[in-house]
Hints:
The protein is of the alpha+beta class. It is 35% helix and 26% strand. It contains 14 helices and 21 strands. A hairpin with a 4-residue loop joins strand 16 (271-278) and strand 17.
Amino acid sequence: MESQRSFLFIALMVVTYLLFNQWQMDNAPTIEQPAVTQQTTTPSNGDFVPESSATVSSKNNGVTVASTTLVSITTDVLDIKINTNGGDIVEAKLLAFDTEQGSGIPFTIFSNTTNRYIAQSGLTGAQGLDRVIKGRPIYKTSATSYQTSPDAPLTVDLDYVDTNGLAVTKRFTFNHNSYAINVEYIIENNSNTAASVQMYGQLKQTTLAESTSGMLPTYKGAAYSTTEDVYEKYSFDDIEDKNLNVSTDGGWVAMLQHYFVSSWVPNKTTNNQIYSLYSANKNAIIGFKAPAITIEPNTTGKTSAILYVGPKDQKVLESIEENLDLTIDYGFLFMISQPLHWLLDMIQSGEVNFDFLGLFTVAFNWGGVGNWGIAIIIITLIVKGGMYPLTKVQYTSMAKMRALQPKITQLKERFGDDKQKMSQGMMELYKKEKVNPAGGCLPLIIQMPIFLALYWVFLESVELRHAPFMLWVQDLSTMDPYFVLPVLMGISMFIMQRMQPMTVQDPMQQKIMQYMPVVFSIFMAWFPSGLVLYWFVSNVISIIQMKVIFSGIEKAKATNN
């Protein structure tokens, strides 16, 4: 078994799996589901409001208000619209990210259009406004347009007073250069009886929108975190099949898509309930309920949570809440991918901020290379250099196999089409020459997790979205428009193939192996150019290492002779 061809075979299997996965997603038949009978009260506007965790009854006071208003908030990174009906965030645009490269049109993550995707929050419980008021409360606000300044946080208050003397302020706090929004309820009880309320926050998204992940499958759906399961995906199909209902200290809920995420993060010191629901109009909902709080007469109570809506930025997410950075879906190799992403970011930005087990911190900035394409080349050099001892073992085994080629050819001429005798003869030859045909496989197996982890880093890193490299490659997250990199990668694979021994004796298998560079070039033509760049550079480094190792072996052999 020859190690380099094993690598090509494993890589082909990975690519085939990814393409087949995406084909299944794109061509799965639509199954009509019966309407879901909800066991909870749904207000007249169709918004789901969760039941209180406590066994209390609530009365709908029948209050309705006809008019609603959209409140606009603009920060340096967000363009938000809040509906005064319930105080839901019904639109969010990310000003630093274009929908299409160079279009100048901000990427829209929340939208209340056909592709509905919004963030809701409210108060449930015995006196919770969103349960006792028909159609949810219509808040009042002093203005309909707000804009942040770099000097201080922006506070936007929505106010409501019910007929029972409960005055509620729903306060949104926005900070400069931040995608995190603090949502706080300030409840003033002016009645003669205690009031019990419970905050909830939920993300609602239609399941009818088409996936836009392109050739490579990326996860779009819900996820949550508890003390027992630090990161658990809960797909739209899971939500449709079974309502989620778990309790946890802290935790979070999220909706994921390629490069971007929204998440509700409740108070980490309280025991919160995480739930999900699939509505009859095919909306998937995942949310949390905080513990109920009791506000005595003539006192004020507060409850709050954080809403994050923005890019999957590893440093930002891990600073907001523990394990929130796991929403950057690096797969099962995340423990390798995360440090590799840190290294890639450090090479590009030059920013070094390293905390060693809380003992000491290293922080400085050396400037960085300022180009993500160059950063990919450098990290490939570092990884391939670090793997050199294993590569040397792999290629040394390969060289021994190549030295046996004349004798293998003699065996083929001797035994002809008798495959059984040919196999026996080769095993005897390997034993006599003390050559292990699988000697290069173990180093390859050890290296594969590193290469796959890098693959996920390049696929999931939002920093590579619309990031230019040079010349014709102006977006490392999309395919090479002129197919230059895939062709170069195919040529590099062909050169590697010519430098290796052909241990496969079956003519059909030999032809298949000869066409592997062409097959891979076609496969990689539609892959993100950053991934193809990485693979091409890795191949070039392998060719150089192969040449150096083979030359060293030949020199050593000549010296011994």
